[in-house]
Amino acid sequence: MTGQEAAPASDPRRWKALGVLGLIQFMLILDVTVVNVALPDIQTDLDFTEAGLAWVVNGYVLMAGGLLLLGGRLADMLGRKRVFLVGVLVFGLASAACGAAANAEMLVSARFVQGIGEALAAPASLGLIAVMFPDPQERIKALGLWGGIAGLGGTSGTVISGFLTDLADWRWIFYINLPVAAFALAVVPALVRESRMERRSHRPDVAGALTGTAGLIGIVYGLLEAAEHDWISRQVLLPLIGGVLLIGVMVLVESRSKDPLIPLSFFRNRTRVVTNFVTLFFSAGFFSYFFLLTLFEQQVLDYSPIQSGLSYLPLGITIGIGIGLGTALMPRLGVKRILGTGFLLLALGLALTSTLSTDSSYVSGILPGMLLLAFGSGISFPAFGNASLHEVTGQDSSLASGVQQAVQQVGGALGLATIVTIALRHADDKISSLARSGTVITDAVTRDALTEGFAIGWRVAVGLLVVGAVLVIWLLEHVLAVPRNPLVEEVAVEAGETPEPV
After folding, report:
1. Containing H/E element for 321?
2. What is the pTM of this model?
3. Which of 100, 288, 479, 499 has its CB 3.0 to 4.6 Å from that of 419, i.e. a possible disulfide?
């Protein structure tokens, strides 16, 4: 740790810096969901297939999730402010390319580059917060605000997308990132001090990160191909097998690396390990809810982009309420109780959503499940943030944040690929079966088939969330949100006391 790490605690600029960092995280999370409402228009303009359309979301989250650990390590080693600024610059340039996309390949490629930008900026941002707010009470408030702003970015993306797609063009959902990125590049250098870890080696495990990311892309590609081909076809099996093999190579590389992306000592903390694992289930359900509900609203209920975007407004408000309540209750209830409750509420919300039919109304059909899911998500976000940084030292703050955000993205991508594939295959199989029996395939028949497919997808997500809830209740330690202060302890370590393991 450098002398820069402890000083920012009394720096009055840290709250202004938090606002700017939160704004960037708002933008980064916004781009996960902002495309959802615009997906039908993007599909028409750039001639995407149904399964291919999922790459508009997955191209972004896979690169972000796959490279977040490398981004967190680079931030810790090279300087968190420096890596943050590079990430914002890459993200801004890629956003411009997304807006100018002339075909499907260009858009997906630019989304991959956007994911690289997030992989650099997001863990550096959370790492800076951990260093700027070493006091446990202040850190809870800072993480609550940062997580709240980020969570609202994910939910307001649908509203923003609806208006921009209807009143202007879907390309503006990417162009709006440019002034935000420019603002951050202009003001962050003056508000944030540089911080980095002290380390003998400065050679992050790039090979492990690249093989792991390639493996995840192969697995997701194979899962999405299963929507249009048999599970035993070469189009499905080859990328799946290749992806699994690459993941195996990553594990081998990591085990032999002198400077792995995740040191073995990181896994000694039970709270962090369990929290990161169950995040996979949480993200799978959360991502699939947005993707399938947007398609249901526009392809089955004939909502316009504005109507679809506005339909998510109660979700954003309720998430905000949940975040506030979760932050306030954390010191008394602890992570285990709050996350367990959050998972069960998410599962119940998705179960209600899976009962939707072609004649469902918004108020009695969509809204009840949405409110339950939103509140469960809201109370969970502060718990995820605090548990992922439980007993983390300043040496590895960006690494810990990178792990948490990586599993969010990877869980969302894998869950989306699996659940969307199941939903689309069921719909296609039913339509094919009806056609073989002599039934005339009308719009009404297609809508019935899509609705059944979406419902099955949501029920799979319910099962995943129930499993996540059981794991939280069974495995997670009952920890409060005010742990010991490892950043302050590091100052004592420098004075000659025995160091505490990560």
Report:
1. helix 313-353
2. 0.78
3. 288
Q: What is the per-residue pLDDT across 339-348, written as a single tens digit (0 to 9) for each?
A: 999 999 999 9
Q: Which two tokens stand for residue 151?
A: 């969570």
Tokens of 371: 């409110």
Q: How far is CA 427 from CA 292, 331, 409, 456, in A?
A: 13, 46, 26, 10
Band the pLDDT of 196: cuts 50, 70, 90: low
For residues 283 and 340, the answer to whether their CB atoms sit within 8 Å is no
Half-sphere exposure of residue 265, counting CA atoms within 13 Å on the CB side? 10
Residue 35, SS3 per DSSP: coil
Confidence of residue 489 (pLDDT cuts 50, 70, 90): very low
Q: Which two tokens stand for residue 406?
A: 């990586």
- Residues whose CB is less than 8 angstroms from the CB of residue 269 and which lie 6 or more positions away in sequence, other chains included: 390, 391, 502
- Reply yes or no on whether the pLDDT at 75 is more than 50: yes
At 414, list the tokens: 């894998």
C-beta neighbour count of 206 within 10 angstroms: 14
Give the CA dihedral 418, 424, 426, 427, nearest 10 degrees. Answer: 160
| Eight-class DSSP state of 500 | P
Alpha-helix residue ranges (DSSP H) falling in 3-38: 14-33
Instruction: Give 204's DSSP letter.
Output: -
User: Quick check: 331 and 345 in contact, CB under 8 A?
Assistant: no
> What separation, in Å, do the N-terminal and C-terminal C-alpha atoms of the chain show?
14
